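Posting this for the archive.
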Amino acid sequence: MIRTTTLRRSLGTGLAAAALFGGWSMTPASAEPIFLSKQYPRCTACHYSPSGGGLLTPYGRSLSREEISTFGRRGAAGAASPGAGRSEESFLYGALGSDSPLQLGLDLRPSHVGVTVPGIELDDRNFLMNLDLQAAWQRDRWTAYGSVGRKPVRGGEFVSYEHWVAYQVSDALSVRGGRFLPAYGVRFADHTSFSREGPDLAQDDQVYGVEVGVSLDRSLLQLSVGPGRADSLIDGNGRAAFTVSGRYQFELNPRTVVAGSLLYRGETDFGPRSTHTGVSFGYAPVPWLVTWTHADRRLRRLARSDQSYIFANQTSLEVWRGIWLRVSPQVRWTDRDPWGEVRRMVYGLDFYPRTHWHVSLSYYRDHFRFGDIHTKTFMAQLHLYL
């Protein structure tokens, strides 16, 4: 009874901190999870970042209008006229024009979250999850990228989550250096997904490093190396670990993708070296259905080495143009730690009424097998990408 009560308190504290201060969030649809159904299997089809997320390219902005939004498409029902809103997809609706080598984006996300933990009373909270300005500059073969925004924790100070410079050596070969999230597995939009949170590839887990990309007709190879997690290097807290990552993606066809990933982290003052290996599979049999599955295995180098496993699936169904239903079963466990087994079900709805307007509703149900504890989280967000 004492152990169970302690576990409940520990879970309540951790979940409350995560939910109320920004640990739970949804980012806008990344290139891979939904756009595979539109036959776009690579992040660079829409994003400046080779590993996905962040600022959209002009083509990505236009594509999100024509392929995702319910009423934003030119000539779609709800448009005032065939020429109405012709700059809807551009930054601030085309205020700066579209011919500049400098592209900007504003990411704004008011949110509501409610958490239920047995035996613990937690208040719902309304807060601003994100307020980020993103910028990309391209000239010839060079791309410079950066973002600046406020953290929802630590008093809301400003931070630059990503900043890097890339050079396109040839049509197939590219190199970039700076702060970025290593390419690994599939980048589910929900950064609390076990497949992102488990390998420490969540919202603020970018690394400083150098990445080499080789892009061919049906395959993509991304390799990176660097001194470790960016925040740990800046804080000097001894948690930065020398990091090597690799991801190889092969496209069986425009709607079927398989990828293998490797992530190695060296020893730190607080933990041993570890190696993650992962396999991801994406399949979209029809334009209104897409499913991604990721399996992950981590080996930690201890006197008695332990292994942990993650399985995560996300299946999305477009029931009407711009309205997607989402379900995501997930599980994680460690062979030597019964406390570590958690089973999660996520049910969600994503609605894209206009270009870069995203309404996201998500319901999480976590089952902690040790102690038989169930927690529930509800997240509602209005995401504006201007």
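The chain has a mean pLDDT of 84. The radius of gyration is 21 Å.
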